[in-house]
């Protein structure tokens, strides 16, 4: 069973954030990073080797049953005061949103985003789609000559690169990329929640939670679900029941 896109999208009313929220945002931005900070050590090492524009690259959305996979690439200008970034998985939603805005506000920063849709994910598999998202993110940068990428080596990157396991906790550039990618994708999933009501995309962001799996069984598969992923595939084509012995 497939579900068509809803023709009704709820409009949201913009409102000024309460004073308490502004105060919380200010606390999040306490203690900006400087050039000598440990979280910039990998970037300093790359520059010592002659690379001038070091990009941090990370992705979000490999595991969900629905929605795109997104990657971001970030190049911080040398010597700039940087927001106190961290691995996006260790941050609250407010912290991510606040730091995302602070990242974009850094003078001279370069940011690229690569987004790969579900049709491409299903066609080429999630690993290759993730690598393609990273390639596209890097290609959007105006100036980069080296890449620090989170996790394992990535094939097809257009520049020399170094893979850093748990890099989002070791490199400011990778951490910033993880925040940018996470906020970008989360906002997309909130929009999809309005287009496909009842699935809870705004809360679980497409991951295979109990709520999401129950909605899939009840409402069926939408065009933004990954049909190559087994839980979705089994809704479309249920496996045969195993015969009982007794």
Helix content: 25-40%
* CATH architecture label name of the domain at 32-184: 2-Layer Sandwich
* Largest beta sheet: strand ordering: 3-2-1-4-5
Query: Roughly how many Å apart are the termini?
Result: 32 Å
Query: What is the strand tally?
Result: 5
- In terms of quaternary structure, the protein is single chain
- Overall spatial form: globular
Provide the CATH top-level class of the domain at 32-184: Alpha Beta
Major β-sheet annotation: 5 strands, mixed
Fourth-level CATH superfamily of the domain at 32-184: Ribonuclease H-like superfamily/Ribonuclease H
Ranges where pLDDT stays below 50 over 5 or more residues in a row are 5-15
Biased composition (Polar residues): 1-11
Enzyme class: hydrolase
GO cellular component, one term: ribonuclease H2 complex
Protein name: Ribonuclease HII
Features:
alpha/beta; 246 residues; 9 helices; 5-stranded mixed beta sheet; 5 strands; Nucleotidyltransferase, domain 5; 39% helix; manganese; nuclease; 12% strand; single chain
Précis, in short:
InterPro entries: RNase_HII, RNase_HII/HIII, RNase_HII/HIII_dom, RNaseH-like_sf, RNaseH_sf. The protein has 246 residues and is α/β, with parallel strands linked by helices.
Q: What can you tell me about this protein's structure?
A:
- The chain is an alpha/beta fold and 246 residues long.
- The chain has a domain at 32-184: Ribonuclease H-like superfamily/Ribonuclease H (Nucleotidyltransferase, domain 5, 2-Layer Sandwich).
- It has helices spanning 19-28, 41-48, 93-104, 118-124, 126-139, 172-195, 201-204, 210-219, 230-236, and strands spanning 54-60, 69-75, 110-116, 146-150, 161-164.
- Strands 3-2-1-4-5 form a five-stranded mixed beta sheet.
- Helix 3 crosses helix 6 (172-195) and helix 4 (118-124) crosses helix 5 (126-139).
- The chain is globular and about 65 Å long.
- Mean pLDDT is 89; it is low at 5-15.
């Amino acid at each position: 069973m497939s579900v068509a896109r809803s023709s009704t999208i709820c409009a949201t009313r913009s409102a000024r954030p309460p004073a308490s929220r502004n105060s919380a945002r200010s606390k999040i931005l306490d203690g900006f990073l400087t050039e000598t900070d440990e979280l910039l050590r990998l970037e300093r090492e790359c520059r010592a080797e002659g690379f001038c524009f070091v990009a941090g690259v990370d992705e979000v959305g490999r595991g969900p049953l629905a929605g795109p996979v997104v990657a971001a690439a970030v190049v911080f200008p040398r010597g700039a005061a940087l927001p106190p970034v961290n691995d996006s998985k260790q941050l609250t939603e407010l912290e991510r949103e606040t730091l995302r805005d602070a990242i974009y506000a850094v003078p001279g920063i370069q940011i690229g985003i690569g987004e790969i849709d579900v049709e491409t994910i299903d066609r080429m598999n999630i690993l290759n789609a993730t690598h393609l998202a990273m390639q596209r993110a890097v290609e959007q940068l105006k100036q980069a000559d080296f890449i620090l990428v989170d996790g394992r080596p990535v094939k097809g990157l257009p520049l020399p690169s170094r893979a850093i396991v748990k890099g989002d906790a070791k490199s400011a550039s990778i951490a910033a990329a993880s925040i940018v990618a996470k906020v970008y994708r989360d906002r997309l999933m909130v929009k999809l929640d309005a287009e496909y009501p009842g699935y809870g995309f705004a809360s679980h962001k497409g991951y295979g939670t109990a709520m999401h799996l129950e909605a899939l069984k009840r409402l069926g598969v939408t065009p933004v679900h990954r049909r190559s992923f087994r839980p979705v595939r089994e809704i479309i084509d249920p496996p045969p029941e195993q015969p009982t012995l007794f």
